[in-house]
User: What shape does this take?
Amino acid sequence: MATLDWSDCPLVEVIPGKVIGAPLVKNTRLPVEAITGNYDAFRDEGLSPDAAIAETLDCYPEAGLDAIKAILNYRDVVRLYRDRS
Assistant: This one.
């Protein structure tokens, strides 16, 4: 799958040299991929979207529920737009 451009997501920052330049939850060292990857893994295990979000929050409480939901929503919107292009 193509790399997602996080530059328009206000909750994500990319700082060269910080966590090898990976997209991070703003003001943290938490890679966005940790959130999206865990959510996807929980969904692959058969959890509902809400349960997968709750489990992801349990793994990364420092991210916060609103940020996790917003990051997942941003990813879905970008993918939908990209798929329609």
The helical segments are 32-44, 49-59, 65-84. Strands lie at 12-13, 24-25. The chain is about 50% helix and 5% strand.
